[in-house]
Design a protein that fits this description.
The chain has two domains: 182 residues, Rossmann fold (3-Layer(aba) Sandwich); 66 residues, no CATH class. It contains eight helices and ten strands. The strands form two sheets. A six-stranded mixed β-sheet has the order 6-7-8-3-9-10, with helices on both faces. A four-stranded antiparallel β-sheet has the order 2-1-4-5. Helix 3 crosses helix 4, helix 4 packs across helix 5 and helix 5 packs parallel to helix 6. The radius of gyration is 18 Å and the shape is globular.
């Protein structure tokens, strides 16, 4: 991250406790605009809690959260319009078709050229042929792909993914991560182009992606940067570009335990 650029996401001394149980313990984190950050850690480390706070679905006990320069404590309603979230709950309506779900959320976000955007997103996630089918007839993998289409429909500046492959069979998980890898590769290409041309023209930053996953291989495939969260703190933070799973596993074991 370049020091001259303000971070897209900034956490300062973030804490979260549920009664006497402290889950996050003074987390400091800066994520640059256009960066793909992957968070690893054991169960109970605070990963999902962190995503819920970033999503404005949970309030921190202490510290500050800023997204796009705005304080989440005072501008949560406005910030939500710039967030796309994929979590354990797909946030879809079973009694609506795929396109009806996207149309509903698109109207909530006042998406321009909505019908064309719906067609584009259904094509991107491979669901064009099921656009008129009720979501309750979808497999778990198809539901997750539609959830990603919903999260990306309004072209959010920040995409938050909390273990998006939970409960998927291996084939569906591969399809899902292929889509995420394609998004990440597009990010990298866009960012490189922007870097090469930034002295001659103004470019909007590409999407910032924060992903929580247990899969080292899949996480590294989409990461610019990785952190390891353990016992509610950031135990490790490093550039992930070019890092292999064989190199990362000993580091993970060192900070977390095998």
């Amino acid at each position: 991250m370049e020091e001259s650029l303000a971070p897209m996401i900034e956490l300062r001394k973030l804490t979260k406790a549920f009664g006497s149980k402290v889950v996050l313990r003074g987390v400091d984190l800066r994520v640059a605009a256009g960066e793909s950050l992957v968070i690893f850690g054991p169960n109970g480390a605070g990963k999902s809690t962190l995503i819920r706070i970033l999503s404005s679905l949970s309030r921190p006990t202490g510290g500050t959260v800023r997204i796009g320069g705005y304080d989440l404590a005072t501008h949560a309603e406005g910030i939500r319009r710039y967030l796309g979230v994929v979590s354990h709950a797909p946030l879809l309506y079973d009694s609506l078709t795929a396109e009806e779900n996207l149309r509903f959320f698109g109207r909530l976000y006042s998406v321009a050229n909505l019908e064309a955007r719906i067609s584009t997103m259904l094509s991107q996630v491979g669901l064009t042929h099921r656009r008129g089918d009720l979501v309750r007839t979808f497999s778990r993998g198809m539901v997750q792909r539609l959830a990603i289409a919903r999260a990306l429909l309004h072209d959010p500046q920040v995409l938050l993914l909390d273990e998006p492959d939970t409960g998927l069979d291996p084939q569906a998980a591969e399809m899902l991560h292929g889509l995420l890898a394609a998004l990440s590769n597009t990010q990298h290409a866009t960012r490189n182009t922007q870097h090469a041309t930034r002295n001659t023209q103004h470019e909007e930053p590409s999407r910032t992606i924060v992903t929580v996953t247990h899969s080292i291989e899949r996480g590294l495939a989409i990461a610019d940067r990785v952190i390891i969260l353990a016992n509610g703190r950031i135990a490790f933070d490093a550039d992930a570009r070019g890092m292999t799973a064989a190199e990362f596993r000993p580091l993970y074991d060192r900070y977390v335990g095998s």
